[in-house]
Amino acid sequence: MAFTHIGLLCSGGDSPGMNCAIRAIVRSAHFHGMEVTGIKRGFAGLLRGEFQSMGLSSVGNIIQRGGTILQTSRSPEFMKPEYRKKGIELLKAQGIEALIVIGGDGSFNGAMTLWKEHNYPVIGIPGTIDNDISNTEYTIGFDTAVETAIEAVDRIRDTAHSHARTFLVEVMGRNSSAIALKVGVCTGAENILLPHEEVNHQKLVDDIQRGIARGKESSIIIVAEGPVAGRSYEIQRVLKEKYHMDAHVAILGHIQRGGSPSSDDRFIASQMGNMAVEALMEGKFPMVTVVQNGKVLLTDMKNCTTKEDHNFIQYQKLAQTLSI
Hints:
- The structure is a single chain.
- This protein has helices spanning 18-31, 42-47, 81-93, 105-118, 142-163, 178-187, 201-213, 231-243, 263-281, 316-322; strands at 5-10, 35-39, 51-53, 98-103, 122-126, 166-171, 191-193, 219-224, 248-251, 287-292, 295-300.
- With 324 residues, it is of the alpha/beta class.
- The protein has 2 domains: 5-141 and 261-304, 3-Layer(aba) Sandwich (Rossmann fold); 142-258, Phosphofructokinase domain (Rossmann fold), CATH 3.40.50.
- A 7-stranded mixed beta sheet has the order 3-2-1-4-5-10-11, sandwiched between helices. Strands 7-8-6-9 form a 4-stranded parallel beta sheet, with helices on both faces.
- Strand 10 (287-292) and strand 11 (295-300) form a beta hairpin.
- The longest helix is centred in the middle third of the chain and has 22 residues, at 142-163.
C-alpha cells in the first residue's frame, strides 16, 4: 500500500528520545517521497486540529534535545467514540492517510481503537521512561532516565558518606520496578523497595544495622514511587517513630524525564522511527516497533496495549545478593 501523506503525534508522558524518533520518521518519510504532518499535544491536539507540516528543516538540531518538539498531553475525551470519530474526520480532511503514535500502553489503546472502529492505519513507537509496555524489552527514554537517576544518587551518596546518613532516594515507577532495580544495582544501594511490595520496615532496619556493624556509616535505599509519589516520607516517619532511626528523603521526580537522550535512546529511537515508516510502506499495520532479544522488530499492536512489570524484575535477586 502506497501512502503519500502520514501524520505523527506524541501522547502521554514525555520521554528523552522522542525527538530522535520524530526526526527519524520525518526524514525516512521524506526519503520515500511522503508528506508528513505533525500533530501538536497528542490526541487532545488532534481534536483541536493542531496540525503542522514537517519538512526536513523542522527536525534539524533536535536529536540531542529531551522532551518532544510536538509536545504531548493526555486526552480523556478521546476515550469517547464520538471524539474518535471527530479525530478521524480531521485527519482525513488534512489528507493524512496513516498515523504514527509515540507513547505508552494508553496511547496504543487509543491508536488500536482507531483501527478497530474506523479501519485507520496506525503504527506505535513505545516511549515511556518506565519501560513497562508488554511485549517489548525496551521503551524509549528508559536508559536516559536511569542515567539521570544514577548521577543524582552518586551525588547523594557523597553527602550520605560525609555526614554518616541514611537516604531514601525515590525514583519514578508507579507500577514498574525497572528504574528502581537498575539504579539500585548500578549505585550499590543497600536496599531497593519496589512499587508492588509492602514495605518490611523491620528488614529494612536490620539491613541498615548489618551494614553499620561491619563499618558502614551511610546507606542508600532506592524507593520506587508506587501509586502515589512521596511514599518515602511515610517510610521515613515509620523508621523514626517505631525504630528510632533517622533517614533523609530525596525525591528525584520529573528530573528523570528530561535531559539530553543517551546514545542508546538516540540509536533505538532512530531505528524505531525508520522502521515505523517502512512498516507503513509495506502495508504492515496496526503494528508497534519493539525490542526483542536486543533487536528492533515489529509486533502486532494488540500485544502492546497493557502494562507489564517484566523488564528487570529478574534482577531482584541480584540486587538482594549484592546488597549484603
